Each structure stands twice: as C-alpha cells, then as structure tokens.
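User: Just a sanity check before I run the rest of the batch. Below are the structure tokens for the first item. I only need the designed sequence back.
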C-alpha cells in the first residue's frame, strides 16, 4: 500500500521473491509510455524525452522507475497505471520523501 503522503515511489525491477524482472528494458518502456504526462502537457516532440514525473534509473545495480506524486495530481489514471504495473508484475515498491538540500555554509 502506498501512503497518500508519498512524494515519490521507486518501482524496483526486483520481484517480491527476489527475481530480476524481465525484459531488461522494462523501466525505459514504462517511462516511455508516460512521456506525454508532464508539466504543461504534451507538446510536439515531447515523445522524444521522458516526463520529469516518471524517470527510469538504476540504483545499486537495480533498474527502477521513479514516479513523482505530481503525476498523480495531474493525471490520476497515469499514476494508477504505474502503480498497477508494479502490482500486476509483483515488483517491489519503495516510498520516498523529498529531503531539502542543506543550507549553504556561511
């Protein structure tokens, strides 16, 4: 269950039983499907870059997709698609909160 206060979720390419999820490009595919959901909406050529709300990455050697809460606020069905993708494929999901940067030292 994802808490309503989560600022970001990390969908990890590891199933709950510890197997690596396949295909190996799943993160890029999921983020590619979400590319048109972005601040200000889709625009010509936006399909050529990832949405800032749904970004594929690798963390500690594990493929992940970082999904920002702003996606849920802008398009709840797109957020649900990502969450259901993780659930349907038995992928591990971690919640994150944004930690503010440290103030500059004087």
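Assistant: Here's the designed sequence for the first item:
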């Amino acid at each position: 269950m994802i808490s309503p206060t989560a600022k970001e979720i990390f969908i990890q390419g590891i199933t709950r039983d510890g197997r690596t999820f396949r295909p190996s490009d799943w993160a890029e595919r999921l983020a590619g499907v979400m590319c048109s959901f972005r601040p200000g909406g889709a625009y010509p050529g936006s399909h050529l870059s990832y949405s800032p709300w749904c970004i594929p990455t690798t963390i500690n050697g594990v493929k992940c997709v970082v999904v920002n809460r702003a996606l849920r606020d802008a398009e709840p069905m797109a957020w649900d698609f990502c969450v259901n993708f993780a659930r349907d494929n038995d992928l591990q999901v971690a919640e994150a909160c944004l930690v503010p940067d440290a103030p500059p030292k004087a």
